[in-house]
């Protein structure tokens, strides 16, 4: 087999014992490249997760890994203190021979290795509200676990990541530059995005007025960033820790909904299939509010439904910006992939806009029951 890395170098760098068996690509993520790698260590089969970090997106691997190592060490202690199994419930990154938790090869590729959580699976889509309730509880619990982590010690791995006003301005720049001549093709999407300018600033304005608390958040709460136990189907581990930074609970809530409570996948091209599934929304509210409870402020609770629309709008703008810039950020599988993803998010945002009163009603009901 030909891989895009030399396994003998990886094994040596991270001191992985045994004979290499195989590397299986895990293709879920849109940024890094990920493999499950397996070794036979005198009859004992050992699995690890190998990632090639996208250094176009994460420009400073040193800071990135410092964040992750600090957060996972913190989580480990918390998990042990409550009687959990830290080897299953969080990730542990291995040191390379340079003493760092990553290694850059001659070609400039940045590698890191962590434990592979065996007997677990993830979902890209689902229709079972119970699973999604568990997902909400898991991300809520994750926010709780990090509630007393000092966010000022974290680097901003991607500056202004969920600053939607900045995302809006990035789109304006991309329109202005029209780097690969695609602007004419996307006039409808651009017009729609520009018509929602007010939404882009809403939460940023509230932060600036001190109306929303800054917490340590995950910032990329896609359903496939939770591992579920094969036997119990309980959520066991939150993964993809690259964007843990100071942020808003609303980002974590809304981003999960825009990904998983969509009646279609992020890649759906038949827009008639795209919309918000209110049963899934309700299940996630139940799980998330059940875990975070009264720690959320009234302003946060009042904006939970809005955050879903905002995250769909923001994500759509990011796909559109990348399409205009010539697909430099997200991995794509075909030339108009980013444009299709953008259309899907904008359709979802519109549907959420129409259903916002019902979503707000659902949120209020659960919050008042706490
Ligand atoms: C990226 O890598 P992945 O697939 O978990 C992106 C998220 C987007 C998401 C859209 C660092 O997440 O912000 O919401 O794609 N991650 C980064 O699918 O930009
Ligand atoms: Mg990611």
Q: What is the strand and helix layout of this fold?
A:
Layout: H1 7-13, E1 19-26, E2 33-41, E3 44-53, H2 61-81, H3 86-89, E4 103-104, E5 110-115, E6 120-121, H4 129-145, H5 164-177, H6 187-195, H7 197-208, E7 215-217, E8 226-229, E9 235-238, E10 245-247, H8 249-260, H9 278-292, H10 298-302, H11 304-325, H12 337-369
Antiparallel strand pairs: 1-2, 2-3, 3-5, 4-5, 6-8, 7-10, 8-9
Helix pairs in contact: 4-8, 4-9, 5-7, 5-11, 8-11, 9-12, 11-12
The structure holds 2-acetamido-2-deoxy-1-O-phosphono-alpha-D-glucopyranose and magnesium ion.
The site of magnesium ion has 5 residues, from loops.
Structure, explained:
By secondary structure, this protein is an alpha+beta fold. The chain has 2 domains: 7-118, Phosphorylase Kinase, domain 1; 129-368, Aminoglycoside phosphotransferase (APH), C-terminal lobe (Aminoglycoside 3'-phosphotransferase, Chain: A, domain 2, Alpha-Beta Complex), CATH 3.90.1200.10. It is built from 12 helices and 10 strands. It has helices spanning 7-13, 61-81, 86-89, 129-145, 164-177, 187-195, 197-208, 249-260, 278-292, 298-302, 304-325, 337-369, and strands at 19-26, 33-41, 44-53, 103-104, 110-115, 120-121, 215-217, 226-229, 235-238, 245-247. Strand 8 and strand 9 form a beta hairpin. Helix 4 (129-145) runs parallel beside helix 9 (278-292) and helix 8 packs across helix 11 (304-325). The longest helix is centred in the C-terminal third of the chain and has 33 residues, at 337-369. The protein is globular. The structure holds 2-acetamido-2-deoxy-1-O-phosphono-alpha-D-glucopyranose (GN1) and magnesium ion. The site of 2-acetamido-2-deoxy-1-O-phosphono-alpha-D-glucopyranose has 11 residues, from loops. Residues 29, 31, 220, 240, 242 line the site of magnesium ion.
């Amino acid at each position: 087999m030909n891989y895009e890395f030399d396994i003998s170098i990886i094994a040596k760098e991270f001191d992985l014992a045994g004979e290499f068996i195989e590397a299986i690509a895990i293709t879920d993520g849109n940024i890094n490249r990920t493999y499950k790698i397996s070794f036979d260590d005198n009859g004992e089969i050992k699995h690890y997760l190998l990632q090639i970090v996208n250094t176009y997106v994460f420009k400073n691997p040193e800071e990135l890994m410092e964040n992750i190592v600090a957060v996972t060490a913190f989580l480990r202690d918390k998990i042990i203190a409550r009687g959990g199994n830290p080897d299953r419930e969080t990730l542990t990154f291995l040191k390379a021979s340079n003493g760092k938790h990553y290694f850059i090869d001659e070609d400039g590729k940045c590698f890191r290795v962590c434990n592979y959580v065996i007997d677990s699976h993830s979902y890209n889509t689902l229709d079972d509200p119970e699973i999604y309730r568990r997902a909400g509880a898991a991300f809520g619990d994750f926010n709780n676990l990090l509630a007393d982590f000092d966010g000022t010690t974290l680097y901003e791995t991607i500056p202004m990541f969920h600053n939607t006003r900045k995302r809006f301005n990035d789109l304006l720049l991309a329109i202005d530059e029209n780097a690969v001549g695609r602007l004419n093709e996307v006039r409808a999407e651009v017009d729609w995005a520009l018509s929602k300018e007010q939404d882009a600033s809403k939460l940023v304005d509230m932060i600036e007025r001190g109306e929303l608390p800054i917490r340590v958040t995950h910032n990329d709460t896609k359903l496939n960033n939770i591992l579920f136990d094969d036997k119990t189907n309980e959520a066991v581990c939150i993964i993809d820790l690259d964007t843990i930074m100071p942020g808003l609970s609303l980002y974590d809530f809304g981003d999960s909904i825009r990904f998983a409570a969509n009646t279609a996948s992020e890649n759906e091209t038949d827009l008639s299939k795209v919309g918000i599934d209110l049963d899934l929304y309700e299940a996630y509210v139940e799980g998330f509010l059940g875990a975070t409870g009264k720690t959320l402020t009234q302003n946060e609770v009042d904006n939970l439904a809005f955050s879903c629309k905002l995250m769909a709008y923001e994500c759509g703008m990011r796909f559109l910006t990348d399409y205009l810039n010539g697909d430099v950020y997200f991995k794509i599988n075909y030339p108009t992939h980013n444009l299709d993803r953008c259309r899907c998010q904008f359709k979802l945002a519109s549907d959420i806009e129409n259903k916002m009163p019902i979503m707000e009603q659902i949120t209020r009901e659960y919050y008042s029951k706490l």
